[in-house]
Amino acid sequence: MKRILILHGVNLGMLGRRDPAHYGTEALGLIDERLRRLGAELGAEVESFQTDSEGEMCAMIHRAVEDRVDGVVINAGAWSHYSLAIRDALEMLKVPVVEVHMSNIHAREEFRSTSVLAGVVKGQICGFGAESYMLGLRAVVGAV
Predict the structure, then answer these.
(1) Residue 123 pLDDT > 80
(2) Which residue ranges form the domains of the chain, and what is each CATH number?
């Protein structure tokens, strides 16, 4: 069975209570449950992790290198726009990585339209709300 790691970054633990116009009303726990169910349908074991600590995010990516996961879906939130530490950690992975965002980062404030992660991921999916995660999971499983 394929092992896929889902990484949720800063402020994503507040989904369901945070700016519903951009992020919807679905809580992170419900999104994670949907991801687990979809993963099972696709023949993948899905593990999810959320943190508001950049260091913890890097440590989890390092663990993914050691644990030999088969693919990663990451929504790094605001870190996508400036975290070279997370970019460098992702670059160590030798498996497909898909970056997702619930909102369309290219249609929002200018500072959100650039992702420093883009150069080290297989692809990006944004603008489809919680469905961005499902599309990302399908993409990464298909790329394994």
Answers:
(1) yes
(2) 2-143 (3.40.50.9100)
